[in-house]
Amino acid sequence: MIKKYLVVGSLFIGSFYSLYSQADRDGFFGFFGSGPGVEPVRNAVYLEECGSCHFAYQPGLLPSRSWIRMFSQKELTNHFEEDITFDDKALETQLLDYLTMHAAEKSSFKRSRKIMRSLPYNASPLRTSDTPYLRRKHGEIPKNLITQPDVGSIANCEACHRTATEGVYEEDQIRIPNAGFFNYDDD
Amino acid sequence: MKKYLLIALLCNNVAYSQTIDFDALYRSWGANPLEVDIKRAQMMWNKEIIANKSCASCHTNNLKKQGKHIKTKKIIKPLSTQVNPKRLTKVKKINKWLKRNCKFTYKRECSAQEKMDFIEFIKQS
Question: Is A86 on the interface with B (CB under 8 A)?
Fold first, then answer.
């Protein structure tokens, strides 16, 4: 008798967890060791070397195969039209180590898992905005709001996500500059 | 106690005595420190060898003010050593940014003379 309840009970718990992990907003994140967004950057070298020029994208926004591709000599000499090859090879390895060790597939944070789930196994995009999950999330935003001078491009996370540096991309933290009456509606 | 104080003082001294020998740096690039021409750097500052790209497009014309990366919109701290004392204190950083930013702005590395002029221009700004 007790055995039967145990089986049914564990089934319930199992289905609850799978629903929970699919959920868009979860009230008690951290319950299963995951955070609400992506793991925040806690690496001074990365913040200095990469974050001086652009938003310090969290490693959990892309899989390690993307970071490895980005650090190939071919990509480093043309990093979004810029040559950023390292004179200090030790530094290069140090950065790639950090990025791959905290990459999306190794993260338990919600957005990292969602990015990974949406990504075909053989795709290694260089832009996190090219992942199917984030494409869908940003699909409804009018082009002119993204290209406006205050934002520049889809790569400027901080322009709208006010808590982006902490790895939090929740809807209630979004403020699109000059958006007027456009209301961001999360599908 | 006195010993530790002395050690602390010595350490302090080491930390603050890392002033760069700029003339030696310029010579190591292959430039002659006697041929510094700040006016040339000043003219280069606004020159768009590639359309819409000059030093000023990111760093502005007032080096005491913060700049903004034209592409990524990232805020760049002031270059002037007067308002930002951290500037021009590390040779490694000087070399890194001169190389990278010349390539970004001119699609080529800068000559030793140009680099020397720029550094002297920043120093007096």
Answer: no
Q: Is the ipTM of this complex over 0.90?
A: no
Pairing relation of β-strands B75-76 and B67-68? antiparallel
**Is residue B30 within 8 Å of residue B112, measured between CB atoms?**
yes
B96 part of a folded domain: yes
A 11-70 near B (Cβ less than 8 A): 51-55
> Which of A83, A87, A152 minimises the CB distance to B73?
A152
**How far is Cα A9 from Cα A2, in angstroms, rounded to an integer?**
10
- Contact assignment for B73 to A156 by CB distance below 8 Å: yes
- Residues with Cβ within 8 Å of residue A63, at least 6 apart in sequence: A103, A104, A105, A115, A116, A119, A124
> Whole-angstrom Cα distance, residue B121 to residue B40?
9
Closest-CA distance, A138 to chain B, in angstroms, reads 18
Q: How far is B95 from chain A (nearest CA, A)?
A: 10
Question: For residues A93 and B117, what is the distance between their CA atoms, to the nearest angstrom?
Answer: 33
B78: in domain: yes
Q: Is A185 on the interface with B (CB under 8 A)?
A: no
The CATH number given to whatever domain includes residue B102 is: 1.10.760.10
Domain of B24 in residue numbering reads as 20-123
Domain count, chain B: 1
Q: What is the pLDDT along chain B (125 residues), one digit of tens a residue?
A: 666 666 665 555 555 546 899 999 999 999 999 999 999 999 999 999 999 999 999 999 999 999 999 999 999 999 999 999 999 999 999 999 999 999 999 999 999 999 999 999 999 98
